Amino acid sequence: MSVPPAPLRGPAVPADAAASLPAKASPSWQPPPLSLYIHWPFCVTKCPYCDFNSHVRASVDHAAWRDALLADLAHEAALTAGHRLASIFFGGGTPSLMPPETVAALIDAARTHWPTADDLEITLEANPSSAEAARFAEVAAAGVNRISLGLQALDDAALRLLGRPHDLAQGLAALEAAQQAVPRVSIDLIHSRPGQTVAEWDRELARALSLGTGHLSAYQLTIEPGTRFAALHAKGLLALPPDDEAAALYELTADRCAAAGLSAYEISNHARPGEESRHNLQYWRYGPYAGIGPGAHGRRNRRATQRHRKPEAWLESVRAHGHGIETETPVSLREAAMEALLMGLRLAEGIDPHRFTAATGVPLMRAIDPAARARLAALGLVTAAGPLTATPAGRPLINRLILELAADPDRDPDCNLDSGPAAPMCAAQERTR
Ligand SMILES: C[S@@+](CC[C@H](N)C(=O)[O-])C[C@H]1O[C@@H](n2cnc3c(N)ncnc32)[C@H](O)[C@@H]1O
Ligand code: SF4
């Protein structure tokens, strides 16, 4: 299917930088809550489907990495004083490989730099190896209160096919350890795997939903350029389920999750009420976030930041300049409106006009004119009235559009030589595939 037309070409708003936004000019203006993304770029092995900014290294100088991350953090904090911190997300790579002391040092520093929300959400992405599970209590003691566990499959053959270093027994044990360590645990699963049938996924999903999780991310397997799966796929050695079967798996996921009390609040994310990822909601609602660590993206002070992707280049930049930023550019009103539209349309709650205007400086009516909305509504892709919301039929199209727009023609071919190309997507998109 092709992507929706008119409104996604770019809103009819001036492309000027947003320094003159009326919201900021008002004496009553308060900086919105800020989120913090921290990227840990190392993994034990490189999974054959993965194009995230993840690298395998024989050894890591943990003291140097802790100090560099703290310096990168201090740089962002100096530029975002006045914001209240709403969430921290340790993503990767495999942040469960970070020494718990580094996690603790970063959380402590963040709490020193910013005032924090009473219910500050601190998530750490984890892989289910037993070594990492043994550290869950320590990272919880450091302040982590949510673990996002990459189970990926509940089937040993599927885990082998995905090249995962853990098996089902380790996955279940890690889930139990995570549930004992922190109040909120999310699990990641990948569906539409080669050879997977609807009946098999139904059974696997039922088992996943019986494990007591309040949050489930179910991603459709995508073949990312430069990965081992892409090479196998190109040679005809890896066949994915046809589109109609993948669509059936997607619909089944939403139905089964809803029946279990986890509604699809975003394209691939399901949660019990109140258990939604507040960090990811910040991206999707187009709130500001600082991103530190290799390859991290940020959107703060109406500026887009991108850190050096290659770990060594990032480390060198922090040593030389006190931060790991490779590029920092103003975000025009047009770009802000476009990004906020694409992000917000992923959400079941849709786009709240007031929040949209506050976040972008652009009235929603100018970002998508009523005639364009009516045309999309007639195609069954968005709602005709109320908050602008993609229909269940429209949401996968939005997802595909985001992935296509995120392809980065300028990516550095040397940036991830040990493990295939670097992740082309911004941090927000990385976390929301
Ligand atoms: C940063 S990644 C991985 C986090 C952690 N290192 C792990 O492997 O569990 C976050 C999630 O993206 C999903 N993912 C990564 N590559 C994918 C792909 N090619 N297709 C679908 N989902 C993918 C996986 O479910 C993964 O848990
Ligand atoms: S899927 Fe996770 S563990 Fe595997 S290479 Fe990517 S980031 Fe690392």
Describe the model:
Strand 7 and strand 8 form a beta hairpin. The chain has one domain: Alpha-Beta Barrel (TIM Barrel). It is an alpha/beta fold. It is built from 18 helices and twelve strands. The site of iron/sulfur cluster has 11 residues, from loops.
Widest β-sheet, arrangement of strands: 7-8-6-5-4-3-2-1-9
Q: How many domains?
A: 1
Q: Structural class of the helix and strand makeup?
A: alpha/beta
Mean pLDDT rating: 87
List unreliable stretches of 5+ residues.
1-23, 408-433
Q: At CATH's second level, what is the architecture?
A: Alpha-Beta Barrel
CATH topology: TIM Barrel
CATH homologous superfamily name?
A: Aldolase class I
Which features does this protein show?
TIM Barrel, 18 helices, single chain, 433 residues, three-stranded antiparallel β-sheet, binds iron/sulfur cluster, globular, alpha/beta, 12 strands, nine-stranded mixed β-sheet, binds S-adenosylmethionine
Task: Summarize the topology.
Blueprint: H1 22-25, E1 34-40, H2 62-79, E2 85-92, H3 100-113, E3 116-126, H4 130-133, H5 136-142, E4 146-152, H6 156-161, H7 168-181, E5 184-191, H8 198-209, E6 215-220, H9 228-234, H10 243-259, E7 263-266, E8 269-271, H11 278-284, E9 289-292, E10 297-300, E11 303-307, H12 311-321, E12 325-330, H13 333-344, H14 353-360, H15 364-367, H16 370-378, H17 395-406, H18 427-430
Parallel strand pairs: 1-2, 1-9, 2-3, 3-4, 4-5, 5-6
Antiparallel strand pairs: 6-8, 7-8, 10-11, 11-12
Helix pairs in contact: 2-3, 3-5, 8-10
The structure holds S-adenosylmethionine and iron/sulfur cluster.
